[in-house]
Structure formats: structure tokens, C-alpha cells
Write a structure and sequence with these properties.
The chain has about 110 residues and is α+β, with helices and mostly antiparallel strands. It has 3 helices and 5 strands; from the N terminus they run αβββββαα. Strands 1-2-3-4-5 form a 5-stranded antiparallel beta sheet, covered by helices on one side. A hairpin with a 5-residue loop joins strand 3 and strand 4. The N and C termini lie far apart (about 35 Å).
């Protein structure tokens, strides 16, 4: 799940960790991809709510991007919209993000 997003994070040198969470009371499954390591902890995360179709394929209902300290997370309908956002703001998550930000303003 989120194969293109994981490839994007790897290409930009961003560490990530993934896990599956199965809530008890709702039919949706939850997939969490944590990234942006600082001081040994992952601060940011993608939360993907998905279900399975009757043919066994994954159907993504909603992708939520929750950054550290953010009160109103961003929600995306599919992975393509998420990647479009990440490409625009990739400099924030890379190791040398400060230098890229300076070049971005010019």
C-alpha cells in the first residue's frame, strides 16, 4: 500500500516506519506510515483508511497527512493527490531541507 509514496520517501532520503492497526468497532482497516525522524522518534504520519472490495482488492477511502503539532490534518482522496502535495513541499522533509528552502525562495 502506498508504494509510490514509499518510493518517493526513499528517493529523498526520508526514513519511515509502517504498521497496520485494526480498530474493533469499524469495518475499515487502518494503515499508518510514520516518517520524519527527529531525536529518535517519528513525528509525522500518513493515516490510510481502507477496506477490501468483494474481489479482495484494497480500496482507499481516505488518506490523512498529520504533521507534528498539526491541529487540522490534510486529507487526500487518493495517492496521486498526496504525491502532488509532497512534490510541492518535499524540501520540508529532507535532511538538507533548510538549504533547499533558501533556493526555493529565489
Amino acid at each position: 500500500m502506498l508504494r509510490k509514496t514509499k518510493n518517493f520517501l526513499r528517493a529523498h532520503g526520508v526514513e519511515y516506519e509502517k504498521e497496520h492497526v485494526n480498530p474493533l468497532m469499524v469495518p475499515e482497516k487502518v494503515y499508518v506510515l510514520k516518517f520524519g525522524k527527529k531525536d529518535g522518534k517519528f513525528l509525522n504520519r500518513f493515516i490510510v483508511e481502507h477496506t477490501y472490495t468483494w474481489t479482495g482488492r484494497d480500496k482507499i477511502n481516505k488518506i490523512t497527512l498529520r504533521l507534528h503539532g498539526q491541529k487540522h490534518p490534510r486529507e487526500f482522496a487518493n495517492e496521486a493527490k498526496l504525491l502532488q502535495y509532497l512534490k510541492k513541499y518535499a524540501y520540508r522533509y529532507t535532511e538538507d531541507g533548510a538549504t533547499e528552502r533558501k533556493h526555493h525562495r529565489r
